[in-house]
Every structure is written in C-alpha cells, then in structure tokens.
Amino acid sequence: VCMFKYFVKRNDPQRIYVVVLLTINMICFSIISLCYIYIAIVTIKGSKILANSKTPSGKKVRSRNKKIQWKIVALIGTDFICWVPFIMICFLHHFGVINASSMYSTFSIIVLPINSVINPLIYESELLLVAVLTAVFDFISSIISRIEQVEKQENVDIALQAIGKASENIQISSAIAKSSQ
Fold it and tell me: Tell me, what's the pLDDT at 127?
C-alpha cells in the first residue's frame, strides 16, 4: 500500500498539507453523511405516506424504503468507523497528545481499506453485513485496547525512568554526604 504520511508532528514540513487534507476529508465525510441523512428523511416521509396504503405496491415500496434506510445507516456507520478514528488519531498525533507512529501500518493496510471493501457488501447482502460489522467492531475494539496498552506502557517507562533518576540522585547525595564527613 502506497499511502501519504498522515502521522506528522508539529515540526514536520508536511504538517500544513496534512491538516488541510484531513480537514477536507472530514468536511467531505460530513457532506456525504448529510446527503445520506436527507435521503433517509425523504424515504421515511414516503413510507409514512404509504403507511395507510393497503395495496401490494405500497407494501413493496415501504419494504424497499426500510432496506434503503438500513443501508444508509450502515454506509454512514462504516464511513464513521473507518475515517473518523483515523482523522482523530492523526490530529492527536499532530498535537503531541499521543504517539501513533506504531499504528500507522495498521491504519494504512487494514482500517482504511475496510471502508472500500464493506461498501459493496452493504449494497448486496444484509446478512453478510452483520458479520462484517461485527468483525469491524471487534477490530476497532482491539485497536483501542492496543492504544491503551501502549499509553500505559509509556507511562510505566516514564515512571521507571523517574525512579531510576531518583535512585541515582539518592546515591549521589549519599556519596556526597559520606565524602563531606
């Protein structure tokens, strides 16, 4: 996978490009989501109009509208699951809140392509969609737990370094105290 370097620090010369690109990506996601929400609202209104209809064609249209509504929810959900965490982690990395360098390959090889793989499945099979979404949610959960483990390990490493420095300072103080006696 050939992918642009999104995880940049504040001093990286590409930082402006990355921030602009991620902002545009988030705006596009928002516009697409709003369009899908509009489609869902229109289909819900159409279903309400047909709700009183007892004709077979009215029932077919209501059934089709319900499928469209579920597909819209699935499309927005998978887009959200794949792109919003990536964008947030990029910004958190950029501002130095977390160090996400170790997660770059996971995102670029696994998480981001998931959206491209899932969208055609959403249009074709609802049963397969449930299995895929379950796998995606499990995967995202494992990523979150990995992030938490990395942060905990970093905190432990920092604490051990502080203890080591304190121990050295105590030994130096003891040596100075002994030599001055």
Answer: 62
